[in-house]
Amino acid sequence: MSGSTARFDEFETVDWIHDGAKERHRQTEPQRQSAEPRHQLLLRAYNAIESWVVVTLVGVLIGINTAIISIATEWLSDAKLGVCRSSWWLNEKFCCWEHKAGECTSWSTWDNAIGADSVFVRYMAFVIMGTAFATTCAWLVRAYAPLAAGSGLPEIKAILGGFVLRGFMGFGTLVMKSVGLALAVGSGLSVGKEGPAVHMGCCVGNVVSRNFARYRRSAARQREIVSAAAAAGVAVAFGAPVGGVLFSLEDLSSRFPRKTLWRSFFCALIATVSLQAMDPFRTGKLVMFQAAYDRDWHVFELVFFVIIGVFGGAYGGMCIRLNLKVAAFRKKHLAKWAVAEVAVLAAATTAVTYVNSYTREDMGELLSYLLQECREGSTGWNSMCDASRASQVAWSLAAATIIRAVGTVLAYGCKVPCGIFVPSMAIGASFGRLVGTLAQMLHRAHPTWHMFAQCAPDTPCITPATYAFLGAAAAMCGVTKVTVSVVVIMYELTGALNFLVPTVIVVMIARIVGDMVVEGGISEQLILLNGLPFLDEMEDEVLDVPVAALMCRVDGVRVVREHGMLVDEVRRIVATDVRGFPVVDDAGRVTGYVGCKNVARAVADAGIDQNATIAFDQSAHRAGVLQLGSLVDTSPVTVRPQTSAETVIEIFRKLGPRVILVTSEDDGQLEGLLTRKDVLRHVRSQQH
């Protein structure tokens, strides 16, 4: 089996047409049974309220789960540096909550905790604890929930596209993803929690909705809740409810009707409000790196903004290409050594990142520093605002950009819960702050240059923090290839309406440059690498063939006859792993399609002799014949062998059948059948 279709068999295909028909029947059946108008009114009211109850529960639980993970992550990140002597369960911020900066005696670094004053002890504690956290995470994930590894975004895209992966959104995966994510991010690996937040949100949506029969029985309604939960996951990750909905619409969901849009927005709002009520950082901010800007930009700065946009696209494209090579190497050589790989990677990462003060910090906290404006009279965090140390700051930022970029390429995709959004934002923000610092140095050295004529005297002309903000947006767009939602997310993070135009400029440049390096974002590329089934928007461009070249021909297709089949014969046929069979008459003409599970259940419930016969037609009941015509779909989707592949792909996308039957043009005889996986297998074989 080729690598590009390696995981196809793990996924089951959803038949949206059949699922929709069953749902409509379930909705109308109680109304037909209840002739009293009052009962019908109560039933409709309950159905309407139930949807909003489910969405509300999902949003509240996503917000609470995110807050708990944020608190745990911050404690684990600080635990590598020291301990609170008075209350070990507090991180540094809360341990020193009532103290001024530099006057806290309750927080102690690890060397002071053992009565020493040694840089080496602090260094070793940082490396050992970071490695221990990451190794523990990898072991737990491998032992209890292997599907919790990675970001989960490629699989979510496939699931929302009409496929089912058993256990991927289960309760066990949710618990291990939450625990593992806190350990992975707290260990110091160059991974983020924002991508996995989408997977966790979808897990919450799935777990909650399956407690309601209406959602448990309908894949379409399940998809509606998963889409809303995905939007809520992005919303709480960035504190951006509108951006979360747009991200789900732009990057995740294959189908996003108006009803789903409205419920996604409501779910994202509830999740954000729940996170705000929990206030995990005790700052009133939804995320650690929210910022605000009150300065404007100048036309001459567009030159620097273009540089930032080009970097974002180049970084995104190269990061995708290199990460795919690392992922291929990991699958080929390190599959049996997943825990050892994570341990070595964590040890190397912490050993290198400790040396640089910018990479030593948690990435969320680093972003909060990089995105803050310099205030008059303040040298800022790590002397970033000290003009006399601008050159040293620039070199440190350059080193931090390279270290984090290498670490992200190596860490993303290892067998721990990991995301790439915030690492990319940190890389882009470091580079943006570097460009802003260099531009500020240039202005200070040559204030009379014509390009600086717009600058007002005796006021800051260039704000490096805004360059960091734009760099974060450019890098995030470069690696995800998402544009509109990135702009909205960055606006919601800062409220910087006056920087909306520069943000759009750098994001568009990043997208253009990134597409020149590699087509598609990292999720799309991982879908191809890992062999996940997903009908991408671009895949019909490479199919210039008729259906006859793609279909499974009739001599390789199991069929059931309308009548005359023995019970024992039918039992052997439905015992296979095929989901359904075409029904044909004596002349081989298609009369319908029947699902395996329905037939197996009906035969088992009937309890008749194995030598009895089964009929799949609509004739009257006869003695000694099990009549199963009611189970047959008498109007399956059919096409002719000469139909173009592009038409078939549109049918799969817009209507969502599990299978399309191919019949002859003259007499309707079965010539073959086609599934979504058949189309994808052909596409992938053409691409490789």
Overview of the molecule:
The protein has 688 residues and is α/β, with parallel strands linked by helices. The protein is elongated. Helix 6 (153-160) crosses helix 22 (522-529) and helix 17 (390-411) packs antiparallel against helix 18 (421-445). The longest helix has 43 residues, at 37-79. It has helices at residues 16-33, 37-79, 92-95, 110-113, 119-144, 153-160, 171-187, 194-209, 213-216, 219-238, 241-252, 258-278, 302-333, 338-353, 357-360, 363-370, 390-411, 421-445, 464-480, 484-494, 500-517, 522-529, 567-574, 596-606, 645-654, 676-687, and strands spanning 11-13, 82-84, 107-109, 163-165, 552-553, 560-561, 565-566, 580-584, 590-595, 613-615, 625-627, 638-639, 659-663, 670-675.
Care to give the gist of this entry?
The chain is α/β, with parallel strands linked by helices and 688 residues long.
**Strand sequence of the main sheet, in spatial order?**
5-14-13-12
**Using DSSP, what is the number of strands?**
14
Number of helices: 26
Beta-strand content: 5-15%
Output mean pLDDT. Answer: 85
The 3D shape can be described as: elongated
Low-confidence stretches: none
Helix content: 55-70%
Task: Note the gap between the termini.
Answer: 13 Å
Largest sheet: 4 strands, mixed
Instruction: Report the structural category.
Output: alpha/beta
Q: In angstroms, what is the radius of gyration?
A: 29 Å
